[in-house]
Write a structure and sequence with these properties.
By secondary structure, the protein is α+β, with helices and mostly antiparallel strands. Helices cover 18% and strands 36% of the residues.
Length: 74
Amino acid sequence: MEIRIGIRENARDLSFESPLGAKEIQEQVTKALNEKVTVLSLQDDKGRTILVPVASIAYVEIGVEDKRRVGFLA
């Protein structure tokens, strides 16, 4: 699942792949924003931990879940 996080007052965003599903990511982000948590912690597909200060988040874009295709295209 591709995730993009926009950071306030910064032209660049954080972009990474996560093994979590869209619903799980949305729940973690919503929980962090609603419960006044200071840091959002997410895992990428390589096992690294990404920490983002919640106060700096401008937006979170969650990619579309895509089923893997098997076989060859003609």
